[in-house]
Design a protein that fits this description.
Structural class: alpha+beta
Strand order of the largest sheet: 4-5-20-19-15-17
CATH architecture of the largest domain: 3-Layer(aba) Sandwich
Strand content: 35-45%
Number of domains: 2
Number of strands: 24
Shape: globular
CATH topology of the largest domain: Rossmann fold
CATH class of the largest domain: Alpha Beta
CATH superfamily of the largest domain: von Willebrand factor, type A domain
């Protein structure tokens, strides 16, 4: 009797980009007519993008297998640095700390991008490419040279633009969507200067308000950072002065300490050394998990109000990101993304590594709701499908033989299941042909992974 063997091929990409897990026409909705459909759902685990795939046994469930990644992850790091004259006595130690931290990330093979924004009574965006928009650089020597050349001089005629410079760093750089995004803000400018006459922003009085949407530019980089999963670290003196007036701890804590703590970062003293910075930031990078969902208005109507609620499992803690997010006037065909930074205490999904997303979309004529459920599991603990992908190199099925062609920098995992467990697995051969030769491997269990000494 002819035995049937089913084969599941999973290609694991090394951060070559996002993978769409469902078409807009499919959706993930409990109601078929819901206008909001999933464009992307993924977990950024320490800079490694891991897409969720729809479970084969439950089309309302999405699973991310986050234990299989071996790459070091992408990290975008932007420094926002006060270069006013009052920083002159601090600049040498500050530059040493910043450069040492950048050098350490470079030495540990993180896939880094860097940039610097300098400010006093205005701000300057350093650009590293003629491409459109403000670009970061992936070269540590470039950022080392820039840090080394920066000095501090001059007294601004008005308040320094720390908050405005931070806003532009978050808003204007071409951050990689699949990278962990970190900012280090260094200043001795008192944040309470925003509340005095001549403030350098247009909406100074609302810089601590969290309820406005869309949030006003300049005044609320904190809101933007929380909403878009930035991690902010700040370096400030223990005492800050605005002209002849010193700020109380409670007052200036509103800006520098709160934006750090509420985005998952830390406030350092301005005298902190590079080992302190690096040894604090690196564990966060290695353990950071950001859940991102991108939804598309797939209807022909503008959604007047969209409500997105995130409910974590018992073993999850939300570090940054409001549990309920709103978006107003959502045009047809447009896509918006929502994110939450998470801490997870277990890798066992039966103990709570699952979550729920509830959406409500209100138009002029309808109110529709959706429930999205997802689980994060470690590699090999549970049987789950790999990401749904489009074959870059379509299989050749001529002469009754299926040949899959892999592309550079791909690991190939082949899972084989026998319908009645009678196939002799030792008779299976796995042959890989490349420009370096043809390699044949045998299989002694139900799963074979090919990881050659060189991949072409």
């Amino acid at each position: 009797m002819r035995k049937t063997v089913s084969v599941l091929f999973t290609l694991i990409f090394f951060l070559t980009g996002f993978i769409t897990i469902s078409q807009a026409s499919e959706g993930s909705n409990t109601q078929a007519n819901n206008p909001l459909t999933i464009a992307q759902l993924y977990l950024n685990d320490g800079g490694r993008v891991i897409p969720f795939s729809r479970a084969m046994y439950d089309t309302t469930l999405f699973i991310a297998d986050f234990g299989c990644r071996l790459d070091s992850g992408k990290v975008d790091l932007v420094i926002v640095l006060d270069t006013s004259g009052s920083m002159s006595t601090k600049m040498s130690s500050v530059k040493s700390a910043l450069d040492g931290a950048c050098a350490s990330f470079h030495a540990h093979d993180y896939e880094m991008n860097y940039a610097i924004v300098t400010f006093n009574d205005t701000f300057f965006m350093h650009d590293y490419s003629p491409a459109a928009g403000y670009q970061l650089t992936n070269g540590y020597p470039t950022i080392h040279s820039e840090i080394s050349s920066i000095g501090a001089s001059g007294e601004p005629s008005c308040n320094e633009w720390a908050w405005t410079a931070l806003w532009h760093a978050l808003n204007d750089y071409q951050w990689r969507k699949d990278a962990l995004r970190i900012v280090i803000l260094v200043t001795d400018e008192a944040s309470c200067a925003l509340d005095v006459s001549g403030c350098a922003t247009d909406s100074c009085e609302v810089y601590a308000i969290d309820s406005l949407h869309p949030y006003p530019q300049y005044a609320n980089p904190k809101m933007k950072a929380i909403s878009e999963a930035f991690v902010i670290y700040t370096m400030t003196p223990s005492t800050l002065s605005a002209g002849a007036t010193s700020c109380s701890t409670a007052f200036w804590d509103t800006m520098y300490h709160r934006i750090a703590s509420e985005t998952g970062g830390t406030n350092f003293d301005i005298s902190a050394t590079w080992p302190t910075l690096y040894n604090t930031i690196r564990p966060m990078v290695d353990s950071a998990k950001v859940l991102m969902v991108c939804l598309t208005n797939n209807s022909s109507d503008t959604i007047d109000t969209a409500r997105i609620e995130f409910e974590p499992g018992d073993s999850m803690t939300t570090i940054a990101g409001d549990s309920i997010k709103y978006l107003y006037c959502w045009p047809p065909g447009s896509t918006y993304c929502f994110s939450w930074r998470l801490h997870m205490t277990t890798t066992n999904p039966t103990e709570g590594n699952c979550f729920w997303l509830y959406t409500r979309a209100i138009t002029d004529t309808t109110t529709d709701t959706t429930t999205i459920r997802g689980c994060m599991v470690p590699c090999g603990l549970y049987s789950c499908p790999g990401p749904y992908i489009i074959n870059i190199c379509p299989p050749d099925t001529t002469a009754g033989t299926t040949i899959f062609s892999a592309c550079p920098e791909q690991q190939i995992v082949v899972s084989i299941a026998d319908s009645d467990t009678t196939v002799d697995s030792t008779s299976i051969r796995f042959r890989v042909s490349s420009s370096r030769g043809t390699f044949t491997y045998t299989i002694n269990s139900s799963q074979l992974s090919w990881d050659p000494p060189y991949l072409t």
